[in-house]
Amino acid sequence: MKYVALTIFPELLEAFWENGIMRRARADGIISPKAINIRDYAHGRHQVTDDRPYGGGCGMVMKPEPLAAAIREAKKTAPDAPVVMLSPEGRRFDQPLARQLAATGELIFICGRYEGIDERITEQFVDFEISIGDYVLTGGELPAMAVMDAVTRLLPGALGNENSADEDSFSDKRLDCGHYTRPPSFEERDVPEVLLTGNHELIAKWRRADALMRTLVRRPDLLREKPLDEAEKALLEKWQGEIEKLLYR
Ligand code: SAH
């Protein structure tokens, strides 16, 4: 997967690519990331990348010429990549979109700063806009990293264990189950006993039930998005019985 990020702070992205799973994925050739400094494409002695907004008002706007030149440069490296603008106005990022992007092979990200970029760049070059949530950050670098992070862990080989990503929250409209590691007892809290039995069938059953319970309590909206299977229905009916006993006994 090729990533090209256009930014005025390339060091932020380099630090991100140089640690953890990103670093390993890069070393293994699973991702090949590159930051382009928009400032390198700005003219004049001061290499200015922003200017005052037409019509007045506060804040600055990223100038179109350096951005256009940087995008054209990025397209030399990744000619087939969709151009993604990080923006609070974009489509809300989620796991299905991460999966879609993981299938593309190449991505170009534009990280905005100030009040954003000149609208003509969006019209002429941007294929789609992505938002990471309904709040406003000072720049598109963190959102671009969030997207690259979520996409990278879906790429074959990136997590080491091929199955890890399949069991994560949202992969199937359900949250993940709880996770435990040693010691078996920590400050008087014990690991659920079934996890220590070594009985894989029972463990898988416990995990499915725990995932369902967590989804029911924290994100019932997800249960409506994907119909319940027979095992889930049976569990909910069992819990309903137990709740009714508590309430009406
Ligand atoms: N004036 C803009 C906000 C600009 S914030 C508005 O109100 O919509 C500066 C830059 O940060 C944006 O250009 C974008 O690249 C990035 N950014 C801020 N919040 C974001 C979010 N929730 N998702 C994605 N990008 C965001």
Structure commentary:
The chain has 249 residues and is α/β, with parallel strands linked by helices. It is built from 9 helices and 9 strands. A 5-stranded parallel sheet has the order 2-1-6-5-7, sandwiched between helices. Strands 3-4 form a two-stranded antiparallel sheet. A two-stranded antiparallel sheet has the order 8-9. The longest helix is centred in the C-terminal third of the chain and has 19 residues, at 200-218. The model has no long low-confidence stretch (mean pLDDT 97). The site of S-adenosyl-L-homocysteine has 18 residues, from strand 5. Residues 86-89, 111-113, 115-116, 131-133, 135-137, 139-140, 143 line the site of S-adenosyl-L-homocysteine.
What is the radius of gyration computed over CA atoms, rounded to a whole number of angstroms? 23 Å
Give me the strand/helix succession. EHHEEEHEHEHEHEEHHH
Low-confidence stretches: none
User: Which bin fits the share of residues in helices?
Assistant: 40-55%
What is the general shape? elongated
Strand order of the largest sheet: 2-1-6-5-7
Oligomer: single chain
Kindly state the mean pLDDT as a whole number?
97
Spatial separation of the terminal alpha carbons: 59 Å
- Could you tell me which ligands this complex binds, including any ions or cofactors? S-adenosyl-L-homocysteine
Our estimate of the beta-strand percent is 15-25%
By secondary-structure content and strand pairing, the structural class works out as alpha/beta
Major beta sheet summary: 5 strands, parallel
- The total count of helices amounts to 9
Count of beta strands: 9
